[in-house]
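Researcher: Here's the sequence for the chain we discussed earlier.
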Amino acid sequence: MEKNNAIKILEVCRSFSRTAQVKAFEPRNFFCSVKEECEPTDLEATSKRLIHFCKMTVEKEVEEYINNHLPESEKVINADGESPL
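Model: Thanks. This is the structure I predict for it:
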């Protein structure tokens, strides 16, 4: 039998989600999922890039939600100057 020496292409999928508890019994869910095909030699770099993209996307959505949907009195800020939502 002849071996197939073709380059394998892998599919990398990464996702990230976050639930922000806005008020009692009022959670807001934020989610991002992406996938990309890559060569085996690029697997680790691709994986890191995709999870970074997902995390940044979700954090931006949380920040936009806080800034656009919560009144100033409900925007809680922690010691780092960031919202814990």
